[in-house]
Amino acid sequence: MVKKISIIGSGAVGSSLAFCLLSKLNLEELNLIDIADGLAKGVALDLEDTRGILGFSTQVRGGSDFSLIKDSDIVVITAGIARKDGMTRADLLKINGTVAKDVSQKIKEFAFGAIVITVTNPLDLITYIVYKETGFSRNKVFGMGSSLDTSRFLNILYKEMKISADSVEGFVYGPHSKDMIVDLSKVKVSGQNLDRFLDKKKIDSIKQKVQLRGAEIVKCLKTRSAHFAPSLACFSLIEAIDRDSNKIIPVSVVLQGEYGLSDVCMGVPCVINKKGIEKIIEIEVSNEDKSELKKVKDAFNNLNL
Fold first, then answer.
1. Running DSSP on this structure, what letter comes out for residue 120?
2. Of 104, 126, 171, 186, which has the most beta carbons under 10 Å away?
3. pTM for the structure as a whole
């Protein structure tokens, strides 16, 4: 059972995740860390004041001192700036990559045994940096990217079909970007192919909507970014770890030969339990999607990580 969780970054995603954890898990300690000392403390105090309503006994603390994360079971990285309209992944990486390197050294120092979950964008690249900088095994460093993309995908399917997401089998994988793989040929609705419910035009439009959903949200929010769905996507990973559930969830992980790729990060379905990633699952990939996945390696090479 998970006893101590630390969240690095006390912005919208970090604070939303903290509230969700207090609402649903029985933790001993929950810590929020942010370079803006007052922000982390203020969020922690506000969260503490829900105790009389939620009834938790968790010790909640906030501050800028990284020693707060000492001996954490799980550390979540949400620190960094949010993507803004017009920003490229390279633009975002210049800032958040530096943050990730600094944070990784603190995790290595104070929480060497922790499972690390990344939320900061550009997610696949940040996950790779954290993996390299901490020196942790790949089963203990992963990003929530494709689990969020899958949630968005299920929502868009629901809006088109008005069928509960519980009746749909399918997920999104690949890079956490507009180049994600949305293979609708593998989607099943109560065991039936998707084309039994939607025509080809609708199916094609769904794929594009899923790929552009993040950009659509950023364009609307302008200086802010999504936080409700990302925080819940991250919570689903923590819950699978806490419950040792062996749940299959697509997450960003360092590949070492899987899918024909090595030394890169991207979202693939994995078995999640108390160890972190228990197993990486390789699914059959079409020739067209194999070509798309090769672009992942090119992206990593071009950025000289």
1. S
2. 126
3. 0.95
Known catalytic membership, residue 176: yes
Q: For residues 179-199, b (16+ Cβ closer than 10 Å) or e, as one string?
A: ebbbbbeebebeeeebeebbe
For the chain, what's the residue count? 305
**Active-site position among 61, 176, 209, 213:** 176
Tokens matching residue 214: 């993040």
- Which of 244, 254, 4 has the alpha carbon at shortest distance from 111? 4
Largest CA distance in the chain: 56
Tokens 């929502």 belong to residue: 155
